[in-house]
Amino acid sequence: MSPSVRLQEMIRVIRGARTQGEERGVIQRECAAIRAQFRQADNGTRSHNLAKLLYVHMLGYPAHFGQMECVRLIASPRYNEKRVGYLGAMMLLDEKQDASLLITNSIKNDLSHSSQYVQSLALCTLACMGSAEMCRDLAPEIDRLLRASNSYIKKKAALCAVHIVRKVPELGELFTPAARSLLSEKNHGVLHGAVVLITELCERNPDTLEQFRKAVPELVQMMKGLVMSGYSPEHNVAGISDPFLQVRILRLLRILGRNNDTASDAMNDLLAQVATNTDSSKTAGSAVLYETVLTVMDIKSESGLRVLAVNILGRFLLNNDRNIRYISMTSLQKIVQTDHNAVQRHRGTIVDCLKDQDASVKRRALELSLALVSAVNIRSLMKELLLFLSSCPPELRAHTTSGIFNAAERYAPSQRWHIDTILHVLTTAGGDVRDETVPNLIQLITTATELHCYTVHKLYRALITDISVQSLVQVACWCIGEYGDLLLRGECEETEPVQVTEDDVLDALETVLQSHMSSPATRGFALTATMKLSTRITHNVDRIRSIVSIYGSCIDVELQQRAVEYNALFKKYDHMRAAVLERMPVIDKSSPGHTNGESTTIKELEPTKLTQEIVLSQEPSNQVCDLLDLLGGSGEPLQPSPSLSSTAPGPASSTAGGDLLDLLGGLDVTPAPPSVTVYEKNGVTLKLQTDRQTDTGMTVTLTATNSTDGDITGLTLQAAVPKSVQLQMKAPSGDVIPAHGLGQVTQTVLLNNPNKVSLKIRVRVCYTSQGSVCQDMVQIDSFPSPAW
């Protein structure tokens, strides 16, 4: 290929290359020829060579050696060379390179050029790659061009001013007067640039926002003109008059009307007019309506207008375009807490979206359906969710089961319905439920005393039908062990009675113990259930003894230990076996140590701890009784004496009783360690509490609360510390933070700092709020005492 080949010929040869190696060889030869010609003094082919080099850059090959050539062409008086030079600068230069500073003076000169096209080139380049230093130097020139008479220049100057404000926010005050005057322009391009500039100014400066709130009536009239104007071929897009400008104006009105009654009242009629007069059959109309809905929901609008906005989103759900359906459900997810009844009207359409083929639409429909569950519609909506669970993709099953469990726990019409629903979920998708499901269901069953017979019959039938679902098998084994006598009795009013013999029950449990599908935890449940049946049956105790003895030499250590202990009950402690294996008491859900991972309110433990501390009598005259109290011989616990916690010794400290108390190290009750707030955003508050255990060991407790109207789901906390510090994160108490601060989620972190280095912790917080996934990073440098 000749070094002087034209651009079109070079493109043809590169496209004709059969292999990547051949293409690379062509480009290397051409780049070598371009380098050689750049060194020559002849300027006739510089723009031609730079254009070829830009094409090479677009293909992903290095073209940095053309940067200085861009600077030379920008300084050229010829328009065709200046155009290619500016194009090269936008593609090859950025604000991090020193070469970009060399074109500042050329841009300043071209901004004052007599030709509007040269001025346009300089404005586009500055808006594309202008650094903060360039913006500060050229901001007065841009302000001057904003007041020019040429609409073509004002349009580009407005967009260039937007870039300057983003780079140097303090320069926004310079453009405020000019931006306000641009709103009186008739040219749509200038208006579009002005609205974008004003939006940027208002988002970055509250004082500017107050100034432009006075322009709301003018913006409303401008928007009305666009909505009611007749056909204009210059601005018409699918029957909508300049939808790009309409969307920008609505976005600006949303910012101006937020948290302001006067501005919101001024635009209510306009928003109703746009919502009723805009055709949603085309994408352009849908875009305008969607922006209208966002504006209605963000300002202080009337209730009727909000219902109209929800109805528009409901119409979007019927649109054939999946993107429109997706954004509709995303918006409904955000407003379902505030306008629950309005969204409920579209429940049928939302549930139908669960059958959509698109995975993203299906996920949004699931989240919205779960948010719509209430005490009124729990039965009907749960049927739809259970039907969806049977056919939903694997990646959604865990989320679906978690949502169903939450809804059933909150709105269950009866305990029997609650148990049936959870058992249905376990049967359908038992392998996708979370670990805390088994203890939660066991707790529910223990509290439903009148349903013990019904539950054990139903679980026994499920057990003999399928033993592959581990969570279901574990609950079934537990229930058979606890309520096996009710199963053998065969009398159950709630369900059809089934005659079950002792051998049938033991055969079922033995099948679980011997199955290769059973996990070690499941075998532990089955072995314990078998042992408990030894006190509930009469004729097969010897068989149970032989089953238990077999596992005394099991390879699984946990199972072996259980079997050895159960054998000891049979042999040495047989007289205690009935008492040890009696029914479990009702499990208190709010008891310390029991968390369900969902929306349980964690009780404050500090008062309980205080009553368990060693307490002292307030009567100093009877030190013997005080000592008896210390040894636990007294009845009621008494409050600690204030004199014991005083730093100055009192008169009683000289007595024998006081000396004995001093020997015990001062038994004053220490207050709970202080906590600090390390994260507060989107209604989620994360507090940190430290407790020094040893000289090098410390326990850090992270507590998350939620002040929003909706539950925060999917909470995960990840922590990182310096290499010399050892970190161990315990399992969190759950991943759902109840709304309105009704509960909290805690996670304990154990730290060992043998070198006693300065401690820093970086915590990553991830959660889902109103359908949106939030992720933040928190750096913790200071800790409440005690710490290192």
From TrEMBL:
Regions of compositional bias (Low complexity) in chain numbering: 641-659
GO BP: intracellular protein transport; vesicle-mediated transport
UniProt KW keywords: Cytoplasmic vesicle, Golgi apparatus, Membrane, Protein transport, Transport
Places the protein is found: Cytoplasmic vesicle membrane; Endomembrane system; Golgi apparatus
Principal subcellular localization: membrane
Chain spans, region Disordered: 587-606, 628-659
Membrane topology, record value: Peripheral membrane protein
The organism's place on the tree of life at top rank: Eukaryota
The UniProt record lists the keyword Isomerase: no
GO cellular component labels: AP-1 adaptor complex
PROSITE patterns linked to this entry: GAE
Domain GAE: 671-784
InterPro entries attached to this UniProt entry: Adaptor_Complx_Large_Subunit (IPR050840), AP1_complex_gsu (IPR017107), ARM-like (IPR011989), ARM-type_fold (IPR016024), Clathrin/coatomer_adapt-like_N (IPR002553), Clathrin_a/b/g-adaptin_app_Ig (IPR008152), Clathrin_app_Ig-like_sf (IPR013041), GAE_dom (IPR008153)
Family the entry assigns: Belongs to the adaptor complexes large subunit family.
Name of the molecule in the record: AP-1 complex subunit gamma
Source taxonomy: Eukaryota, Metazoa, Chordata, Craniata, Vertebrata
